[in-house]
What we know:
Elements: H1 2-8, E1 21-23, E2 26-28, E3 35-37, H2 38-43, E4 64-66, E5 70-71, E6 78-79, E7 84-85, E8 89-90, E9 97-101, E10 105-109, E11 114-116
Antiparallel strand pairs: 1-2, 2-3, 4-7, 4-11, 5-6, 8-9, 9-10
Pfam families: YjdM, Zn_Ribbon_YjdM
Domain Protein YjdM N-terminal: 8-37
InterPro entries: YjdM, YjdM_C, YjdM_N
Amino acid sequence: MRENAVSQLPPCPKCHSEFTYEDGALLVCPECAHEWSADAAEGDSDAKVIKDSVGNVLQDGDTVTVIKDLKVKGSSLVVKVGTKVKNIRLVDGDHDIDCKIDGIGAMKLKSEFVKKV
């Protein structure tokens, strides 16, 4: 009877074991001890795709160009249009790009204001 319940659960996202089981609100893999929520298994939250202003998919380490003058909050500095930003890092949140800009330093940008080079 319990075998039917096991076969209906999704496989482990880490090791792809079919022997997952429920433990409260979590799904657990007995082979690698990975735990994840049941709703994350349905939505696959790791698959978030961040795109630039024209729809190109961005990845960590990409080089982008700023497409609009951006005022730096709390400062009189401005990131000018055409500024090239190398080696970006994608993060969660409203400002989804973490980077360092020459002459300004570390800052966060929104992907809608950049274009992949």
